[in-house]
Amino acid sequence: MAFSPLVDELVESLRCLPGVGQKTAQRMAFHLLERGRSGGSRLSEALSSAMTGVRRCDSCQNFADTEICGICDNDARRNGTLCVVESPSDLLAIEQAGDYRGGYFVLMGHLSPIDGVGPEEIGIERLLARVISEGITELILATNPTVEGEATAHYIADRLDARDILITRLAHGIPVGGELGYVDGFTLTHAFRGRKPLSE
Amino acid sequence: MAFSPLVDELVESLRCLPGVGQKTAQRMAFHLLERGRSGGSRLSEALSSAMTGVRRCDSCQNFADTEICGICDNDARRNGTLCVVESPSDLLAIEQAGDYRGGYFVLMGHLSPIDGVGPEEIGIERLLARVISEGITELILATNPTVEGEATAHYIADRLDARDILITRLAHGIPVGGELGYVDGFTLTHAFRGRKPLSE
């Protein structure tokens, strides 16, 4: 772009966002310059504060502003259950569902030896230490139902095998509101195997 | 999000970008925090500089860092032709094609009485003054082939009717590399009417 180095730099910088290519970055830059300067300035400040201020919670590894995040710091949520998730967005989805009131541990990934991600990288030792020190009675392994997620869940379960801790995995089945005709075979098989009496 | 006000604010701010909703904003925020902190900081600075530093070129109305943009300031491009476009991205597309070497005038919109956009809002008086003062010999009306774009082009042409200036519109036809079977009827009709001898 011959007309403005500042606009060039803005377009180039916007490309660091996931899923944003050259054309989208251009559209975003022009939108902000034409109609959203106040939004753009607010975004600039939010980015700057977050990039320097956001750290990992010492207890659950999730993003936090403080040493211990709001959830870990909440006594009411130390009820002996701990839910292990792969990412902050998984935690968020569970929080938005609103039913679960225990603690979390965020792996920030999954075991993936091919990418050099072993137990150390996703904090499994820290998780095991916490399970024991806090006297956790139920560990819910809510990693994704993918090959890596399953492997991670089994690895954690194996490491805690000798201890008297209930280890659970989220139920598979038909999504609420889903249509049977569109549900894949594996899910249907799981749903059949996990069927329950109507009176329950 | 209970765990971090800084992350909340970042997600909320990212939603000022066009086409970015809650889920996409979350994904962007987590991506930057996990894997792109340096990119995030760079974006923050680029936003801040652009939001305060980018202004409109006094001559062509395009975004610029200086009073007169690089294209308007280039003597070689004052060759008597002026191309009128609706937006900076249109200008950019023409520049990237690389063939046109004249000047530009960026309307930053099109006539749209229903939205309160009249000739004054898109700088038509300034355009006419420039056409006359610079002794423009050809005015290329490259507004979009939409109802508003056509109306804007006709309005400008009418205003210059009495003067001895060649006023042109970009050719309609089959896109290079396009397949005939997928071209719409209007475009095909234009392509037929605009057909040329093979030897040209």
Describe this structure in words.
- Two copies of one chain form a homodimer.
- Chain A starts with a helix and ends in a 7-residue tail after the last helix.
- The first copy, chain A, folds into two domains: 5-53, Orthogonal Bundle (Helicase, Ruva Protein, domain 3); 63-169, Dna Topoisomerase Vi A Subunit, Chain: A, domain 2 (3-Layer(aba) Sandwich).
- The longest helix of chain A is centred in the first third of the chain and has 17 residues, at 37-53.
- The first copy, chain A, is globular, with a radius of gyration of 22 Å.
- Chain A has seven helices and six strands.
- Chain A has helices spanning 5-14, 22-35, 37-53, 88-97, 124-133, 147-159, 185-193, and strands at 55-56, 63-64, 81-85, 103-106, 138-141, 166-169.
- With 200 residues, chain A is of the alpha/beta class.
- Chain A has a four-stranded parallel beta sheet. In chain A, strands 1-2 form a two-stranded antiparallel ribbon.
- Chains A and B meet through α1, α2, α3, β2 and α4 of A and α1, α2, α3, β2 and α4 of B.
Question: Helices and strands in order, then pairings?
Answer:
2 copies of one chain form a homodimer.
Chain A lengths: L4 H10 L7 H14 L1 H17 L1 E2 L6 E2 L16 E5 L2 H10 L5 E4 L17 H10 L4 E4 L5 H13 L6 E4 L15 H9 L7
Parallel strand pairs in A: 3-4, 3-5, 5-6
Antiparallel strand pairs in A: 1-2
Characteristic key phrases:
homodimer, 200 residues, alpha/beta, Helicase, Ruva Protein, domain 3, Dna Topoisomerase Vi A Subunit, Chain: A, domain 2, 2 domains, four-stranded parallel sheet, two-stranded antiparallel ribbon, 10% strand, Rcmb_RecR_Znf (chains A, B), zinc (chains A, B), TOPRIM_RecR (chains A, B), metal-binding (chains A, B)
